[in-house]
Structure formats: C-alpha cells, structure tokens
UniProtKB/TrEMBL annotation:
Belongs to the ABC transporter superfamily. SUPFAM superfamilies: P-loop containing nucleoside triphosphate hydrolases. The keyword ATP-binding applies. Residues 19-252 form the ABC transporter domain. The keyword Transferase does not apply. This is ABC-type branched-chain amino acid transport systems, ATPase component. Keywords: Amino-acid transport, ATP-binding, Nucleotide-binding, Transport. Gene3D superfamilies: P-loop containing nucleotide triphosphate hydrolases. It holds the Pfam family ABC_tran. InterPro entries: AAA+_ATPase (IPR003593), ABC_transporter-like_ATP-bd (IPR003439), ABC_transporter-like_CS (IPR017871), BCAA_Transport_ATP-bd_LivF (IPR052156), P-loop_NTPase (IPR027417). One of its GO terms (biological process) is L-amino acid transport. It comes from Deinococcus peraridilitoris (strain DSM 19664 / LMG 22246 / CIP 109416 / KR-200). GO terms for molecular function: ATP binding; ATP hydrolysis activity; branched-chain amino acid transmembrane transporter activity.
Length: 252
C-alpha cells in the first residue's frame, strides 16, 4: 500500500471513463518491473505519474495499452475488464497511448502519420477528415507542414505530431509517456499547455513525467513511482507541498 500525501489521494470511481488499475504486477523474466500497482484516473482528470528513469512508468503504460501482459492484477476501463486485451481492442475502448520516443514514421508525411493514428476508424472517411481538422486546429504548424516528412520537423513539432496521432484514435483517455523528454523548457510549456487544452475538451489524461514541477502545474492529482511500486499519491497541491516530492523531483 502506498501513502497519501495530505489533502489528496481521493480515488474510487468505477463509472464511465474511469481507468482502474488494481494490484498489477509485471515481470520481465525474473525482474519484477511493477509490483502490486493500483491507480485510478477518473473521467476528466489529468493524473501525473512521477518517477525517475527506470521506475516503471513506461511499463505501466504499455500494460494498460495491451502491449505488455501483467502476471497478476486487473485493469478495467468504463467498468469493463481489459486486462490482457490486445492493443487494438484497448484503443477501440477509447484508450490511446502516445509512447515515449514518439514512434513516428519519419519518412512518411505528417498527414500520413496522422491518418495511421486513425487506423481503427479507417472505414469512417468523414470521421478521419474531421479528426485531421481537429488536430490541425490544435496544432496549426502540422497543417502548414502536412506534406513534409515527419522526420524533417523539430523535436517539439514531432512531439505535437505524436500527440496528434494519438488523438486521431478519438480517445476518452490519453496516455502520455514523457512528452517533454529532450525538449527545451519553452517547448515543454507548450506541450503541457496543449495537454491542458486537450483535457479541457473532456479527454482524461495519464501523464508520465520527470519534469515534476511543470507537470504538477496542470495535473489534478498524481502518483509517485519508485522501483516499480507506487509510494505516494495526492492532489496537485499536496504533491507540490510534499517535502519528499520537492527534494526528489522538483529539486528544492
Ligand atoms: N523489455 C524489457 N526487458 C527487461 N527489462 C526491461 C524491459 N523494459 C524495461 N525493463 C526494465 O524495467 C524497468 C522499468 O522500465 P520502464 O521503461 O518501465 O521505466 P520508466 O519509468 O518508464 O523509465 P524511462 O523513463 O527510462 O523509460 C527498468 O529497470 C528497465 O530496465
């Protein structure tokens, strides 16, 4: 069991749009990468997952997304058990991941990369076009450069494209794995501002970040992960005020 930071840690919804991860354990061979992890994202929330390199954040995201099977525990979404479902089924339920490292197709155009994100809706051409319009509205630079190769853009623009591609799946819950990795501080702010805007349209967000202070500015709640286990949870204010979080992740 992990601790609650003061004033925080209220969870417990199992209603529409809620993600519930319960007692999930993941191994890579003998190595235990996640140990009895339990976490909730309620509808409409931005929940931040803080943790150092190798803490297990990406493993948790991959497990929720159906790319990694847990050895025990359950993951449910909208009250439905999605544990062990394959990735396409999880996307079809409304959960899309923007993976660490972006995983773009650098030689394909920006627009083709976006359309690939709408794979599960490919028969709905009008819907795909509406999705493109929405993404271009959010990221005008992607419209301007839509015929350019994805790999020709700056790191920040590629991160915008990776987020846009995940949005093309029309998720209710967006899993954002370290979107600020390797970006300049101003670009980090832009990425987090876009995340806030996406959330304002009703999409809930689980955000893995090492950039704790910036992420906590936009998050409603958060968890701290260390060595594959959650050690702390709390509201934005509680985590920002927590001494352990401040010294380990904010550098105060
Ligand atoms: N496929 C794998 N096989 C074996 N060990 C793995 C594998 N993937 C990750 N690990 C190990 O599991 C642990 C958790 O890795 P994970 O990538 O989930 O951490 P993280 O918190 O996302 O860190 P990072 O930000 O560096 O990606 C690390 O010790 C890592 O070396």
């Amino acid at each position: 069991m992990h601790n609650s930071a003061q004033n925080g840690g209220q969870t417990g919804s199992s209603g529409q749009g809620a993600l519930q991860v319960q007692d999930v354990t993941v191994r890579y061979g003998e190595f235990v990468a996640l140990r009895n992890v339990s976490l909730t994202v309620n509808p409409g929330e931005i929940v931040v997952l803080l943790g150092a390199n190798g803490a297990g954040k990406s493993t948790l995201f991959r497990t929720i997304s159906g790319l990694q099977r847990p050895v025990s525990g359950t993951i449910s979404y909208n009250g439905e058990n999605i544990t062990g479902r394959d990735a396409a089924e999880v996307i079809g339920r409304g959960v899309a991941q923007c993976a660490e490292g972006r995983m773009l197709f650098p030689e394909l155009s920006i627009q083709k990369n976006l359309i690939l994100g709408a794979f599960i809706h490919r028969r709905d051409k009008n819907g795909v076009n509406r999705g493109l319009e929405e993404v271009y509205e959010l990221f005008p630079i992607l419209r301007d450069k839509r015929h350019d190769a994805a790999g020709s853009m700056s790191g920040g623009q590629q991160q915008m494209l990776a987020i846009g591609r995940a949005l093309m799946a029309r998720p209710q819950l967006l899993l954002l794995d370290e979107p600020s990795l390797g970006l300049a501080p101003l670009v980090v702010e832009q990425v987090l501002e876009v995340t806030r805007r996406i959330n304002a349209t009703g999409t809930s967000v689980l955000l893995a970040e090492q950039n704790a202070y910036a992420a906590l500015q936009i998050a409603h709640r958060g968890y701290v992960m260390e060595n594959g286990a959650l050690t702390l949870e709390g509201s934005q204010a509680a985590l920002l005020g927590n001494d352990a979080v401040r010294s380990a992740y904010i550098g105060v």
